Amino acid sequence: xxxxxxxxxxxxxxxxxxxxxxxxxGVMAHGPxxxxxxxxxxxxxxxxxxxxxxxxTAALHLLYFHLGxxxxxxxxxxxxxxxxxxxxxxxxxxxxxxxxxEPRTGNIDLDQVAARINERTRAxxxxxxxxxxxxxxxxxxxxxERGLHIVEDCALAVETRRDGVHAGxxxxxxxxxxxxxxxxxxxxxxxxxxxxxxLARSIRKQRAFGMDKHVRERKVPGVYDVQALGFNxxxxxxxxxxxxEQLRRLxxxxxxxxxxxxxxxxxxxxxxxxQLFETEAEGVQSSYYCLxxxxxxxxxxKRADVIEALRARGVGTSVYYPHPVPRMTxxxxxxxxxxxxxPVATRIADASIALPVGPHLSDNDVDYIIAMVKEAIAGANKx
Length: 383
Ligand SMILES: *Cc1c(COP(=O)(O)O)cnc(C)c1O
Fold this sequence. Notes:
This protein is α/β, with parallel strands linked by helices. It contains eleven helices and 13 strands. The strands form three sheets. It has a seven-stranded mixed sheet with strand order 1-9-8-5-4-2-3, with helices on both faces. Strands 7-6-11 form a three-stranded antiparallel sheet, with no helix packed on it. A three-stranded antiparallel sheet has the order 10-12-13. Strand 2 (about 75-80), helix 4 and strand 3 (about 95-100) form a beta-alpha-beta unit. The two termini are about 25 Å apart. Pyridoxal-5'-phosphate binds next to helix 3 and helix 4.
């Protein structure tokens, strides 16, 4: 039987050789690969500054820490996202205040943002859901009017652009993930991009304990001062070496993602029981992270059956994301959120199935997935 995983990193001889080179060099941290990866990522995205860190979650936490958030502060967070988007806020002692999604793209509902802003609000966080860019202009004006920061969670948004501008360059900063099933991987890893030189300088220090001098800037080895709190959120040179090679493959990855997505979309769009998100619009460049299909009302209670039928036929799936974040136990208990107060996010969480479109798929795999989705739905309809 064929098996098509939801995601699979593509690692070749180049990555293996790059890792071996770093191991042989003996320089596994603070080395040349880290800077080379940052430079390559900055060039690729058009960002004036890029700072590599240990994960996207670390990147987000570092940003809120840098902004000085603490107890009594609030940040607007989309309900339909990875829990990391909200955890990064809560880790500082500030509170995540959620806004529902809009049904066309699954992105934050722009019409509901203003009503959640109050005197405690410090920042707006956005997630480019599944790689489709949020319409940033209204948020930028809102942030300007109300004196708020904008933090972009770009974990699914490598190569996401709006009007030619890469995701992460609309707000104060953007945070990327190199977790293995994302667009490119470094094993684990993350990156912050920003136009703000002071912000970049400050998080560079805070990712390494708040030390005032980088290893290579120290006049006397081992001697430095610390003027502020910081973490150890560094990316190491082994990770960076993998990331550099993955960036070299990115054009090829993106061509395949776009092609697989288009083929899968046209094979599924006529299926009455499925609703597909909008990915094409004027000025919009999606990163085609996956194709998430929302089951019609009649099949919602049978989602587990559809997923199981696909699994039995070798088709890997996932759910992006399994709950509106405020419905998760921690958030319900901490803030008393009503998990059902976010109807669109709830529907996506409970009724969607994410299908693969990654570069590990051939045209033939895509056709197989289309046929198997039809079979799985026909089977569920009969139950
Ligand atoms: C995967 C993901 C994260 C977490 O990324 P890590 O690099 O694993 O910390 C954060 N936000 C979103 C939207 C994600 O999909």
